[in-house]
Description:
By secondary structure, the protein is of the alpha+beta class.
Amino acid sequence: MNSLESFIAQFKEKLICVAVSDLETGGEIFVNADEGMHPASTMKVCVMMEVFRQAQAGVFGLDDSIALTNSFKSIVDGSDFALGMADDSETSLYEKIGGRESIRELTRLMIVHSSNLATNVLMEKVGTARVDAFMRELDIRDLHVIRMIEDNKAYRLGMNNGTSARALTHMMRLIAEEKVVSREASREMIQILLGQEFNESIPALLPADVKVAHKTGWTGSFFHDTGIVCAENRKPYVITILTRGFAQDDEKGAHDCMARVSKLVFEEIV
């Protein structure tokens, strides 16, 4: 796919990683797909998957409610840390601290609004180690979830979650194929992902009738998007775009780059 590789080659000081898997034709596209990356908020899909796995196993019900707190334990030494509302893309949940919210709604907020608070509350509920173990059980390589959001002690010691574009595409393909937990659970996860409200990247330049079930992620110089692209009259394809090197104040540049990559892939496949 020369047009895609030529476009990516323009970004001399940046790393652009792409992994595409087409359920219609079996075709694949990989560019820097095995480069290790900080997953940012794309790892919230992993948390959602484990939530649904435990719900299916009867550990809890999705409509059960859990207490909302803003105190979590660092994996370094067990010390307490809290999330900053100013750094969270979803803030309404902070007003409910001390109360309760359903697991289903927390899962939706974690994906659709990328709520950090919902993510940590859910990770505390299901267990961070269990989230990571489920990725191993699904044979998704190079995707590791070892700590909660904003565990800064761990971050400073390099104890971070990790992924690659190939790993995230594998993960999203399993959901698209309705192979995660159950057909019904996979379909419900897709519906949640379709509600994504940050649509500046993969969906931005695609035709209006194309639906994208996706999850974005951003932290520091990392800007990502991974999703299932559903065009009319064909099976979907899965695409992951990971970037590193865009300045924190160049969010538009990162989104524009990912949107162009997505458009080039769409034109090639569809």
